[in-house]
Design goal:
heterotrimer; A alpha+beta (783); B alpha+beta (416); C alpha/beta (251); B: 416 residues; Helix Hairpins; 3 domains; 10 helices; C: 6-stranded mixed β-sheet
Chain lengths: 783, 416, 251
């Protein structure tokens, strides 16, 4: 082994520059791998782990009813089939706009007393941060208000409910299972007793709502249980506001964004790993080329190919091990930053903990890939005959030919010499071509993330329908309201809809969105297979549900509600991250088979020309209809609010991706061009000796591989434009997202390509400038 | 390596064919109707009953009223009555509009067309993959031809030449070294043969020189003997003695003739190489040139059709000599022009090398003459001499002229 | 005298663009133990080709080579490499020391191929370096930091380190001036006196004088052979004999 070690040391000494470059790339790769593994194995499951720690139960049921006496006897009867349950009474506002950072968040809000809120046994709510000194009118808010809303303990918080404004101070933040995240549709909070009493006084006849967290018996089916409970409650009080959801649904909506982020991160990581593999291959083949004679001499004195391969492998292995361990270490330094944005969205307290899997996967991936790739690239050594190597590559039988004859070519001298260099470096050019191409692709993915997560957030992937605003009226005023909306000049593209729940047999239920005409939805992408429903017997169901229950396009599905049943044809599959993938869409005409449309409220999704018209329209609705307006959402503001977290994530991601791409591009170009200049050193010495100027040599070097780069940039720009979405989709499909159409701005694409070309040229010139310093003689004697 | 690629590709095309066939067979067993599309059409008709402009056209169907009258049809192929629809296996759907049943929609059964479509699809796929297969096999054959058969041809051409005594043309190394050290050994054999032949010839020549010298040396004393005997004859009185002198004289004459013959024999030489021309097709000339031009410098050329009077082996050797000279001394591209003129097939072979001086042109055809630039190159200076000799034996001639640049050798081959 | 190498009809052909050139033709040759065999000939006559073919580094086109009882025309490259460790030492014209290794490491890199014990190998390497007059101060320098003559002597040390059956030297003085060249030749001569068999290719008569058996290669064949006695510095007669022989060969 010692002989290999001597050689390995000497390889390193000889190839210090590229070794360090490769080392950096390996470090980056292991860092990125470790980071995305941490995100997947440690950060992402935090919400689930926390839910378990807080004894989250199987699900939550909450209802508001003035008719139902929800005493123990009633609940025990209602909740037949649960192992255990716990009741809490608190105030509940089903649709409430509350300040969130600089914007406004529309969500349901549960307000409880501090005492009752924090003393639960099932789905415990913990205070994760507080300032005991805050007195007077205070409120505890979900942790997400800190992580993404930017609030701190002691901040003022102004809440207005039904015209009443409460000036509160934030005393602390809550870590809660069911009410911690905007995506799960419910915020849990608690206030001082005094404030609570004031709110209670205002709430009217419905009174306190009942919140029940329960654990099902093992043999009870979730779907059936839900249908039975809901039906009982609706039967007891048709006007009751009832919600029931299982923990799994809460978790999936709470963590969905994190998954997308982790996924995007993973997508980028894979590309970097790919580049690194190629660079290792490239540098090894360069190594072999540059050290042909040394290898020949070593073979002559009795080194076998195995010995030499072993020594090169040893060097790269040492590099890989050190780099990957370091990379993992660095990843733990960077992880809190990345994790914080992921966590911000979930609203769960989290600190990065050591993940053995992440560490092992990151290190072993880099090391194993290095070994494989090195061995693969080193196969060449076996074919080197010592005598041929010593004769500088002249084989016993050689068929070389001169492709570009200087006396015949119509090209200029510089151009034809470039061309010669290019032909002699076929392999190098292919590598340059591919690597540059991947870099372009890499940048396009970064651009895509920047454009869609940051500049012009693309929220179709998060919502069922996108609109500038939504206004909803109660049953009494819905016709009048519609007229008003239609008459309002600035409001366009009015889409009437309502939401309800329907059952599939007695086992399962779906959240149903009924649109006046689903084909007019803004978010056409929601349907990823088939078509949106338009006829009275058509329905779209979510792909996840279809897959789970074996439904295909064209199948019949029987849906029922309140005793009425109708068979619909599944004409399309939709994607949805809400309601745990239990969603359906149909038209009003279809809904009328099982629902009495008359008693359904109406909401209107609308668009406006200008953003500020949203608020003015909503205000005029308020003025005209007052309490009859049951839903008013300024989507622009809501989006802003939910994007506060998102933008933070995206910006950080971008800084990371930008930094990494810049680093990778620089390293790759450095390595590529360095090896090119290096391998041609001798030729340059000769050229220089016979009177070529450094300038023409520099241009010639740069020129010799610019064709590969330019061609690659051109081809891969176009390719990336078409492949970026499928690539993202390929990654995202594993996270349950079926169809995503991200926008790729063409100017950005052009900028990337141009920058790439210019940067390479610049780099080439800089690298080639080293020729200038070298004496021709030195270059000639250099082996 | 390349063999593997070919094999993999060919197997792949077979697999594609197989998969497509199996898929088709499975698909054609059960043709599913597009429920969503049928529903879409029917519902659109219901919703817009009596308003045919709004009917969907994505399927082909007809709408018949409750009395059986045709209310609408998308095209002429659809069934126009329920009976016809049943016969065709069409899909019959009742229309419901405002509580009534105003008629039926007959959606044409497109199973047959669907199958036909798939048949087309399979036919096209199989055709295309067979095409690819054919191309692959063809190129593989070409590849085999190039790597094995052509080197083999060259090898057998070489063998023929060596068998015919032509040791000047070297055996080319083929790129893939199909024959391995065989190629090397064969060419080595040629050079060894040539060397030993040269040595043999040198020994023979030396012997002849000696004989010539000897005969020359003998002639002088014989002449002395003759004159002495003539003188003796004149002086002798005795008839008997005279007769003796006469005999000596006579024998001296005989000896002179014999020595002369010996001398002439030894001076005259090589030309005992036999040339036996007969009628041949002009295509043999082209063949010979192609054979001689083993580096393929000449490119395309045409030989006019005619009958020539040649010895194929000797003509081959003649061309061999010219081409090998050109490779050796000029190493440029070569042009070949041929035309029929004055009862000859005139083939001009020209290179673009340095050529020779005008004085040299005149003597090139002579034996053991070589140009200035021949220094350091193997050869005996016999090639063009032999070429000229061969051509003369075939009633032809070669003419060597200096061009600018290069040298031209014009073959005059007698036509019949 | 024992034969180390015996060749039978050794041939080597090169080709360029398809044109064959037979560099070695049917050579039957023996190399004997203890000899300092010198191969001479005009440039391009095939001297170096013969040398590398004899050592098994270059595969001959035809013929067999028997090297210490092993037919080295057969066997995989790696087998031959392992064979060379113990049996062949190489001294090249351009030394081919590994630039990025110190002098000592260069020698050690060869020593460790045979001697697994690192300490033993190191002490042996030092011993051999001393025997070729490389001072200790140079041991940790890199090949680019020492003179050409020194580098060549390090090369010889590397060749001698494993006590090979035969040392092959390909114009060892070709790139050196006469003084440093003499040092190198002295080192080789000394090794030969100690019993090391050497085959050296040269086109330089001063170098050739060191040998006791001179082979002359012409047109790929051994054109002639001359036996001289052991080298004694300043032996006039020996020198004249060699000159006459070379003159007869058309030198």
């Amino acid at each position: 082994m010692s002989k290999e070690r001597i050689l390995a040391k000497s390889h390193f000494r000889k190839n210090k520059g590229s070794s360090i470059g490769i080392f950096c790339l390996m470090l980056l790769a292991s860092m990125l791998l470790s980071l995305s593994m941490i995100l997947f194995t440690d950060t992402y499951p935090t919400a689930e782990k926390e839910a378990e720690r807080l004894n989250g139960g199987d699900g939550i049921l909450f209802f508001t009813s003035s008719k139902i006496q929800a005493d123990d006897a009633y609940l025990t009867k209602l909740l037949d089939g649960v192992k255990e349950y716990e009741v809490e009474r608190a105030l509940y506002y089903s649709v409430l706009s509350m300040p969130f950072g600089s914007a406004e968040m529309t969500n349901s809000l549960k307000v409880g007393r501090v005492e009752t809120t924090t003393s639960k046994k099932l789905a415990r709510t913990e205070i994760c941060e507080e300032d005991a000194s805050v007195e007077g009118d205070f409120i505890y808010l979900p942790y997400q208000f800190k992580t993404s809303g930017g609030y701190h303990v002691g901040d003022d918080y102004k809440l207005s409910i039904s015209g009443e404004t409460y000036d509160l101070r934030i005393k602390g933040f809550l870590n809660t299972v069911y009410g911690g995240c905007n995506n799960s549709g419910l915020y849990e909070s608690c206030v001082s007793d005094e404030v609570y009493d004031r709110m209670y006084a205002k709430i009217g006849d419905a009174g306190e709502s009942t919140f029940v967290v329960f654990n099902l018996k093992d043999d009870v089916k979730e779907g059936a249980f839900r249908i039975r409970v809901m039906n009982t409650l609706m039967a007891d009080d048709p006007l009751a506001d009832v919600s029931m959801n299982y923990l799994s649904a809460f978790l999936s909506s709470r963590t969905f964004m994190s998954l997308i982020i982790a996924g995007s991160f993973f997508a980028v990581t894979m590309l970097v790993v790919l580049v690194i593999i190629l660079m290792i291959v490239n540098s090894i083949s360069n190594y072999v080329k540059e050290n042909m004679k040394t290898i020949g001499a070593l073979k002559a004195i009795g080194y076998t190919s195995r010995n030499i391969k072993g020594s090169v492998l040893m060097m790269f292995l040492a590099l890989a091990v050190i780099a990957s361990v370091l990379g993992v270490a660095v990843s733990y330094l960077v992880a809190p930053m990345i994790a914080s944005v992921v966590i911000a969205q979930m609203g769960v307290p989290y600190s990065v903990s050591f993940s053995l899997i992440a560490t092992i996967v990151a290190i072993s991936t880099v090391v194993v890939l290095t070994i494989l790739v090195t061995l693969l690239a080193l196969r060449k050594i076996k074919r080197i005959e010592p005598i041929v190597a010593l004769r500088e590559g002249v084989e016993s039988h050689n068929f070389r030919s001169n492709h570009v004859r200087l006396d015949k070519t119509p090209l200029s001298l510089n151009a034809s010499l470039s061309f010669k260099t290019m032909l002699h470096n076929k392999r190098q050019n292919i590598i340059t071509f591919v690597v540059t191409g991947i870099m372009v692709f890499f940048c396009v993915i970064a651009l895509l993330m920047f454009e869609n997560f940051n500049l012009h957030p693309n929220l179709n992937i998060l919502m069922s329908e996108s609109a500038d605003g939504v206004v909803g009226f109660d049953v009494e005023t819905k016709e009048e309201g519609e007229k008003f909306c239609k008459s309002y000049p600035e409001v366009k593209n009015l889409r009437r809809y309502f939401e309800t729940t329907i059952n599939v047999g007695q086992e399962d239920s779906l959240a149903l969105m009924v649109f006046e005409d689903p084909t007019r939805m803004n978010n056409q992408d929601i349907c990823y297979k088939g078509k949106l429903p338009s006829h009275d017997n058509e329905v779209n169901i979510s792909g996840k549900f279809a897959k789970l229950n074996g439904y295909k396009l064209g199948d019949e599905i029987k849906l029922n509600v309140g005793g009425k049943e109708y068979a619909y044809i599944i004409c399309g599959l939709i994607q949805s991250c809400n309601n745990d993938g239990h969603q359906a869409i149909m038209s009003e005409s279809a809904a009328s088979h099982i629902l009495d449309l008359q008693i359904m409220p109406s909401a209107f999704a609308f668009d406006t020309e200008e953003d500020d018209q949203i608020e003015s329209f909503l205000t005029s609705c308020d003025e005209k209809f007052g309490d009859h307006v049951v839903v008013r959402i300024n989507m622009q503001k809501t989006i802003e609010a939910s994007l506060i977290t998102f933008k933070g994530i995206a910006t950080l991601m971008l800084v990371m991706v930008g930094l990494i791409s810049a680093l990778v591009i620089l390293l790759v170009l450095f390595l590529l061009i360095r090896s090119l200049v290096f391998s041609k050193r001798k030729d340059y010495g000769i050229y220089k000796a016979i009177g070529y100027t450094s300038k023409s040599l520099i241009l010639q070097t740069a020129g010799s591989f610019m064709p590969a780069i330019i061609l690659s940039v051109l081809i891969f720009s176009v390719l990336s434009y078409f492949m970026a979405n499928p690539y993202m989709q390929l990654i995202m499909i594993n996270f349950g997202l079926m169809k995503c159409t991200f926008n790729i701005p063409i100017p950005g694409l052009i900028a990337i390509g141009t920058a790439m070309i210019l940067l390479s040229f610049l780099f080439a010139v800089l690298q080639a400038r080293r020729i200038k310093k070298v004496e021709p003689y030195q270059m000639l004697v250099a082996e | 390596m390349r063999k593997k690629i070919f094999l993999v590709l060919i197997v792949l095309t077979f697999l594609i064919e197989g998969t497509v066939s199996v898929l088709f067979l499975r698909k054609s067993k059960r043709v599913e109707q597009d429920v969503v599309a049928v529903n879409d059409c029917v519902k659109t008709v219901e919703e817009n009953f009596g308003n045919p402009e709004k009917y969907l056209k994505k399927l082909s169907y007809s709408v018949v009223g409750s009395e059986g009258e045709v209310l609408y049809k998308t095209d002429e192929k659809v069934s126009t009555s329920v009976v016809e629809a049943i016969r065709n296996g069409d899909i019959i759907v009742d229309l419901h509009a405002e509580g009534e049943e105003p008629g039926k929609v007959l959606v044409r059964n497109q199973t047959a067309e669907q199958i036909e479509k798939w048949q087309w699809y399979i036919a096209v796929t199989i055709f295309l993959s067979s095409l690819v297969q054919a191309i692959l096999i063809l190129s593989y054959t070409m590849y085999l031809h190039k790597t094995i058969i052509r080197p083999f041809d060259e090898m057998s051409g070489f063998a023929q030449r060596v068998a015919g005594g032509d040791l000047e043309v070297p055996l080319q190394m083929d790129k893939r070294n199909v024959f391995g050290s065989f190629t090397e050994a064969f060419d080595l054999m040629r050079t060894e043969l040539r060397k030993s032949r040269a040595a043999e010839k040198a020994a023979y020549d030396a012997k002849k020189d000696m004989v010539a010298q000897l005969s020359h040396d003998i002639k002088t004393p014989v002449a002395s003997i003759k004159s002495a005997s003539e003188f003796g004859y004149e002086l002798a009185q005795d008839e008997k003695v005279k007769e003796r002198f006469n005999l000596i004289n006579f024998k001296a004459d005989e000896l002179t003739v014999l020595v002369d013959n010996l001398f002439v024999d030894s001076v005259k030489d090589a030309s005992e190489i036999k040339v036996s021309p007969r009628e041949n097709d002009a295509s043999t000339v082209k063949e010979a040139i192609l054979h001689a031009d083993f580096q393929n410098r000449a490119g395309e050329f045409e030989i006019p059709a005619c009958k020539v009077f040649t010895d194929r082996l000797r003509l081959q050797q003649a061309f061999d000599n010219v081409f090998i000279n050109s490779y050796k001394y000029a190493d440029t591209k070569i042009t070949v022009d041929a035309k029929l003129e004055d009862g000859y097939l005139k083939v001009a072979i020209r290179d673009f090398g340095p050529g020779v001086t005008d004085e040299e042109v005149a003597v090139l055809k002579e034996k053991y003459r070589r140009g200035r630039n021949s220094e350091g190159k193997e050869g005996a200076g016999i090639g063009l001499y032999l070429t000229s000799y061969f051509m003369k034996e075939m009633d032809g001639e070669i003419l060597i002229t200096n061009e600018d640049p290069g040298l031209q050798v014009l073959f005059l081959i007698r036509t019949i | 005298m024992n034969e180390i190498i015996k060749t039978q009809k050794l041939c080597k052909t090169f080709s360029n663009g398809g044109m064959q050139q037979h560099v070695l033709r049917n050579i039957d040759l023996s190399i004997y133990e203890g000899d300092f065999t010198v191969i001479m000939g005009a440039s391009g006559a095939g001297k170096s080709t013969l040398l590398y073919a004899l050592s098994g580094m270059d595969k001959p086109s035809l013929g067999d080579i028997d090297f210490a009882g092993k037919n080295i025309t057969k066997g995989t490259p790696d087998e031959l490499a392992v064979f060379r460790r113990k049996n062949c030492g190489f001294v090249f014209q351009q030394t081919y020391l590994v630039d990025s290794m110190s002098v000592l490491d260069n020698v050690l890199a060869a020593a460790l191929l045979v001697e697994k014990n690192k300490k033993k190998a190191a002490s042996k390497a030092k011993e051999v370096l001393k025997s070729v007059d490389i001072e200790e101060s140079l041991w940790n320098k890199f090949p680019t930091q020492i003179s050409g003559g020194e580098a060549q002597r390090v090369g010889i040390a590397r060749a001698l380190i494993n006590d090979p059956k035969l040392v092959f030297a390909d114009e060892p003085t070709g790139a050196l001036n006469s003084t440093t060249g003499k040092d190198v030749l002295d080192v080789l001569t000394k090794a030969n006196e100690k019993g090391q068999s050497i085959v050296m290719v040269t086109h330089d008569i001063t170098s050739a004088r060191r040998g006791n058996r001179i082979l002359y290669v012409k047109d790929g064949e051994i054109a002639g052979e001359c036996q001289l006695g052991k080298y004694v510095s300043g032996d006039k007669e020996r020198h004249l004999k060699l000159r006459d022989f070379l003159g007869g060969m058309g030198w």
